[in-house]
Design brief:
With 353 residues, this protein is of the alpha/beta class. Strands 2-8-7-6-5-3-4 form a seven-stranded mixed β-sheet, sandwiched between helices. Bound molecules: pyridoxal-5'-phosphate.
């Protein structure tokens, strides 16, 4: 007797990057921020009254939603919080798509969780190939038959960003379709579609505390959009988990998003280091598309991505590699501190010599 469902037997789950958190590795494989979270967030964490954990947290994370709304320039009714933006993205599938309707559309090379979620929720989907290897083909996406889109901007794992002007034109051109804009890395691009949600009721922007706020271990993400879209997400949350964001997480994330000054400085350090590291990689002969995220997507004309990944791992540096289609030529390298990146460069020089 096989007790597993057809779904559980058949689905290919998302594969997260290796979490080898021992000190032996310079860890540049899962796009974590190399800098600590805001001191304001750290203080809340240190001073948190453990007796509060006796009680359930605010089910809709109201205090945190207020803090996010304030920082993002919207109303709290336009904000939804989840246990990581992965959970928010997951809930978008049952909230906005039907199993027997026109499905979701996304790029063939993008955040691979979209396809896993679509299969998990039984939502049909169509993929659109990137153009010129690295670029989202918005005009091809526009004419795809679908009910809505998932767009990672900047895209993963290429790091390529679409300027606001183009994303707005796209959203405006598909008024009957929902556009879920996954802005996990947008802070490193210094812009956002959030101000557009007032103008476009078909736009939902999803953001996370994991990358630019250095809080990947806290698990919190959020969506900003028209109140009807947000209400749909709340309906789905309350069918699945009433308390997805724990009390400590709500308090810490509210403090982090309130410390705009620290956030800006940490983001600027990563952006500056990204440009330096890209220069070093180009000098070593790598092909590296311009990145607007906190990682670089690099291939070398003489060495396969798998070989570079494996040799770096032997040398104590972890990067990300996929054994799939054109991705196999590349490694995705998270921007670290200058010291971490110097180790990477030194090891790459050794490997290439
Ligand atoms: C990291 C990432 C997320 C999700 O991060 P959470 O830690 O679940 O908030 C979402 N989308 C993309 C494209 C990402 O790279």
């Amino acid at each position: 007797m096989d007790f597993l469902s057809r779904l559980a037997r058949g689905i290919s789950p998302y594969t997260a990057g290796e979490q080898l958190n021992d000190k032996r590795y310079v860890k540049l494989n899962t796009n974590e921020n190399p800098y600590p979270p805001s001191p304001a967030a750290e203080r809340v964490l240190r001073e948190f009254d453990a007796s509060r954990l006796r009680l359930y947290p605010a089910p809709n994370a109201d205090g945190l939603r207020e803090a996010i709304a304030h920082a993002e320039g919207v109303a709290a009714e336009n904000v939804f919080c989840g246990n990581g933006s992965d959970e928010v993205l997951a809930l978008c599938f049952p909230a906005f798509f039907d199993g027997d309707g026109d499905g979701a559309c996304f790029a063939d090379v993008t955040y691979s969780f979209y396809e896993v979620f679509a299969r998990f929720f039984g939502i049909p989907f169509a993929t659109v190939p990137l153009r010129d290897r690295f670029y989202l083909d918005l005009s091809a996406m526009r004419s795809a038959k679908c009910r809505g889109y998932f767009i990672a901007n900047p895209n993963a794992p290429t790091g390529v960003g679409i300027p606001l002007r183009e994303t707005e034109a796209f959203v405006a051109s598909v008024p009957d379709k929902i556009v879920v804009m996954d802005e996990a890395y947008m802070d490193f691009f210094g812009q956002s579609c959030v101000p557009l949600v007032k103008k476009y009721p078909n736009l939902l922007v999803v953001k996370t505390f994991s990358k630019s706020y250095s809080l990947a271990g806290m698990r919190c993400g959020y969506a900003i959009g028209d109140r009807d879209l947000i209400a749909g997400l709340f309906r789905m949350k309350d069918c699945f988990n009433s308390y997805p964001v724990d009390a400590l997480c709500q308090a810490v994330c509210a403090a982090a998003i309130g410390d705009a000054e620290y956030h800006e400085r940490a983001v600027a350090l990563v952006e500056e280091e990204r440009e330096r590291l890209r220069g070093e990689l180009l000098a070593l002969g790598f092909t590296v598309p311009e990145s607007k995220a906190n990682f670089l997507f690099a291939s070398h004309p003489e060495r396969g991505g798998g070989e570079i990944y494996a040799r770096l791992k032997e040398e104590g540096v972890l990067v990300r590699h996929w054994e799939k289609d054109f991705l196999r030529d590349f490694c995705r390298i998270t921007v670290g501190t200058p010291e971490q990146d110097d180790v990477l460069i030194e090891k790459l020089k050794k490997i290439l010599s």
